[in-house]
Fold:
Amino acid sequence: MNYELLKRFGSFFILCLVQALILNQIHLFGVATPLLFVYFVITFRRNYPKWAILVWCFLMGICVDIFANTPGVAAGSLTLVGAIQPYLLEVFTPRDSAEDMPPTIRTMGVAKYVYYASLLTLILTLTFFALEAFSFFNWQQWLWSTGSSFLLTIVLVLAIGNLFDRKQ
Structure:
């Protein structure tokens, strides 16, 4: 078995457990819920097969949905983010970078990594809470949930990205 695949399985398992056991229980001010499972999508290398990204994202979303009792919400939103990720990564990577470059703060630079991670996180939170609400009658609640969850999630994503980047 490939070491990269083993690392991917490990991060899948750890992120599922952390999201299910800890982060799904956090609702700051009744609106902010961290959606850290987006970090799984952010870490896919450049030129990773697009079909594999979609399969991984769908499986991660289904696991989160099972534990959070949100039927299809996480799977749908994470699969959308997985479909967008390769194209968004190409926008933020330098043209002369390696074909299998991992998206980290060190390889992309701080500003580009923050923009890249922020866009993916924003797309995830927008679609997640839009699918969860499934209506815009209470648009203020949707806006508060999306904005606060985005801020909480991006802080966690950048902290974990910085921690793992220093470790390597």
